[in-house]
Amino acid sequence: MEDRLRELWDFADLDGTEARFRAFLGNVQSDDERAEVLTQLARVEGLRDNFAAGHTLVDEAETLVAPDSTGRVRVLLERGRLHRSGGDPEAAQPLFVAAFILAKTRGDLSLAVDAAHMASLVDDPEKWTKQGLELVEANPELSRWLGPLYNNLGWYYYENERFDEALEAFEKTPEAYAESGKAKTLHALGRKEEAAEAARRALALLPHDSHEEWVEEMEAIAAQN
Questions:
Q1: What is the pLDDT of residues 49-75, one digit of tens each?
Q2: CA 115 to CA 104: how far, in whole Å?
Q3: pLDDT digits over 160-179, tens only?
Q4: What local confidence, expressed as pLDDT, does residue 53 receive?
Q5: What is the SS3 assignment for 11?
Q6: Rounded Cα gap, residues 119 and 103, in angstroms
Q7: 166, 39, 146: which is closest to 99 by C-alpha?
Q8: What distances in angstroms separate CA 68 from CA 54, 99, 104, 107, one per listed residue?
Q9: How far apart are CA 61 and CA 216, in angstroms?
Q10: Region of residue 8 (left: phi > 0; alpha: psi -120 to 50; beta: else)
Q11: Distance CA 89, CA 172 (A)
């Protein structure tokens, strides 16, 4: 049910991640497993903005998978991610939906939640986030997804000025990065002292060396109490 390849990922070290997946290719037992690994190498290329290289790897993976396999789920999911990151969310949306349906049917529930999470970034955030949350709530072993899902939902509500609902979503987000969302939402609600406290927590908890605008915004909210 959990994504068995997740332990090979370190998003802060793409070179190391690539090396682990390439080494893992030597241990695969089937074409479908090989395809799964190729899709993860494609994701690495996507995170490097090497979209053509990513699509080439997904093309190779697609020749290896059975129509109803986990490898097929990953092909759909990573093809969709490449399209979205490459600036074509319309092409990504049906791929995420197809990945969600197939993964849920197969019982690949971590991948189903991942697909719902990605679908929420390109189409109807409220609907797709709630689809993901329903799966997590029914399968507590997937609780690591609560943070990303509630965080996305919080920002969706915030951007649509549904501030009470945004705050409720951010308060259900266990990860530290939700503090910035709480700070902005509390500030929008006029609860400046609480907003300042949340902004100070965000500044203390999160790495922000490369997010100058974010730091300035949090510092401004923290000063308003």
A1: 999 999 999 999 999 999 999 999 999
A2: 10
A3: 999 999 999 998 886 666 88
A4: 97
A5: coil
A6: 13
A7: 39
A8: 22, 10, 11, 11
A9: 44
A10: alpha
A11: 28
Q: Which two tokens stand for residue 218?
A: 């949090």
AA identity, residue 182: K
Kind plus residue range of the DSSP H or E element containing 7? none
Interacting residues of 59 by C-beta distance below 8 A, sequence separation 6+: none
Can you list the alpha helix ranges (DSSP code H) found in the chain? Answer: 14-24, 31-47, 51-62, 70-85, 89-106, 109-119, 125-138, 146-159, 163-171, 178-188, 192-205, 212-222
Which amino acid is located at 162 in the chain?
R
**34 to 73, 127, 176: CA distances (angstroms):** 13, 33, 35
